[in-house]
Specification:
With 168 residues, this protein is mainly β. The chain contains one helix and eight strands, in the order H-E-E-E-E-E-E-E-E. A hairpin with a 3-residue loop joins strand 2 and strand 3.
């Protein structure tokens, strides 16, 4: 009897103390500035508790062979520390994470410029802000620094983007 009462009280307390999980999805466009400005596009999906959130992000940067700037594709898992609520419509955050990257420069079929491809582990650190617009729609502005593996042509790579974020 005491065991059942203890289990019922534990279940009740866990239910009362639990915070709801929130999810969001972001589609973004921006610039990778290393070594030359190139367009980056991508998406991120995340789930968060009160101040800790986890997200997966995929992004693709175009190349610029004339500037010797490779294309860069990244996929990473990140942890975010954010304010629990927006202040004056702004919710700042800091983030760090790890994932994989692929860097490619040149065309395999053409000898000039020489073809380069590197795949490895990428670490990233950054921060940003989610700005409330209307209802669950927010503007997200983000800056990241990616430390790419030793075979990368340019490391660290810097990225700045803006995107629409839907909170649900």
């Amino acid at each position: 009897m005491k065991l059942m009462r203890a289990m019922a009280m534990t279940t009740l307390m866990c239910g009362l103390l639990a915070t709801p999980a929130f999810a969001d999805i972001t589609g973004f466009i921006g610039a990778n500035t290393t070594p030359a400005n190139r367009q980056v596009r991508g998406a991120a999906a995340g789930i968060g508790l009160l101040i800790v959130a986890f997200e997966f992000e995929f992004a693709n940067t175009t190349d610029d062979p004339l500037a010797a700037a490779p294309s860069l594709t990244t996929g990473s898992g990140n942890i975010l520390l954010q304010t629990p609520v927006a202040f004056f419509a702004f919710q700042p955050y800091v983030t760090t994470g790890a994932g994989l990257y692929r860097e490619t420069l040149g065309d395999r079929a053409v000898a000039t410029p020489p073809f380069h491809q590197d795949t490895g582990i990428a670490l990233n650190t950054g921060g940003g802000v989610k700005v409330s617009l209307i209802g669950p729609l927010r503007l997200r502005v983000d800056y990241r620094v990616f430390k790419l593996g030793s075979g990368a042509l340019n490391s660290p790579a810097h990225r700045l983007y803006a995107g629409l974020n839907l909170k649900f």
